[in-house]
Design a protein that fits this description.
By secondary structure, this protein is of the alpha+beta class. It is built from eight helices and nine strands. The longest helix has 27 residues.
Length: 269
């Protein structure tokens, strides 16, 4: 049998494809993918920016002879912390159960969970960090730990975005989100609260495959321009910050203190 041949019309890494699928075409636009880890990319335009804050400078895509660059940050453990609650501690039977468990308490009760099970990625890059649960008291319940685990995804993502804004010299207008954990409404509300910018979830949560399809489709004429893709992006839900600035500052300070306890934990002398 002779198989027909076809030209490869588009190719991209998974996070670059997700950024393209989120229609982050203007400098300053950003997306965050909440999967096993968290992966945030910020479009910096046609000029690469060398990070001074421990991020990666990467090619986003090349289209019509023009290259778009991004800053990229990777969180090693995001949704994987929920898997740990499910598989190791067995406090939930499915990942979806973490949201109602976390909702049994109004807040984390002062508990911070730094899920540095395999060290910490950007912007810390510390392979010797280890996981810590700080702020436990006699009144701590499983709901507090579950909520702190979910909130750790938002705290780590905030660390990435703060580093990106310093590198790029800009303030983010909105954050587009995707990935499996983006289905968690409480997570996205807390993310909006921490960032104090709108967090926008599209109808299509899995934008990696979508972005790869867009790139190939542009090459063969299914779409004529990126404007078609912008128009194809549809909002599912927008999350707006409801947190006072003083509370945001207090929570962030607590998180940074907890992270400082996790850094350089493993003996490597």
């Amino acid at each position: 049998m002779v198989w027909p041949t076809a030209a490869i019309s588009g190719a991209a890494g998974d996070q670059q494809a997700a950024t393209f699928g989120q229609a982050c075409f203007t400098p300053g636009s950003a997306k965050n993918t909440y999967g096993t880890g968290c992966f945030m990319l910020l479009n910096t335009g046609e000029q690469p920016i060398t990070s001074q804050n421990n991020l990666l400078t990467t090619v986003g895509w090349k289209l019509n002879g023009r290259t778009t660059y991004c800053l990229e940050g990777s969180v090693f453990i995001a949704g994987a912390v929920v898997q740990w609650l499910r598989d190791a501690l067995r406090v939930i039977r499915s990942s979806a159960e973490v949201e109602p468990l976390a909702a049994t308490v109004p807040d984390s009760g002062g508990v911070y969970f730094v899920p540095a099970f395999v060290g910490l990625g950007a912007p810390h890059w510390d392979p010797y960090a280890r996981g810590t649960i700080m702020g436990l008291s006699r009144g701590t319940q499983l709901g507090h730990i579950a909520r702190a685990a979910v909130e750790s995804m938002a705290f780590q993502s905030r660390d990435l975005l703060e580093a990106m804004q310093r590198d790029a010299g800009l303030t983010l207008a909105e954050l587009r989100v995707d990935g499996g954990a983006a289905a968690n409404n409480d997570l996205l509300q807390f993310q909006a609260d921490l960032l104090d910018v709108p967090v926008r979830r599209p109808v299509v949560h899995e934008t990696t495959a979508l972005g790869a399809a867009y790139l190939a489709g542009l090459a063969v004429g299914v779409w004529t321009s990126t404007e078609d893709i912008v128009n194809n992006w549809k909002l599912d839900r927008e999350f707006i910050s409801q947190m006072e600035g003083a509370e945001r500052k207090r929570l962030t300070a607590g998180w940074q203190k907890a992270v400082s306890r996790s850094l350089d934990w493993e003996d490597h002398s």
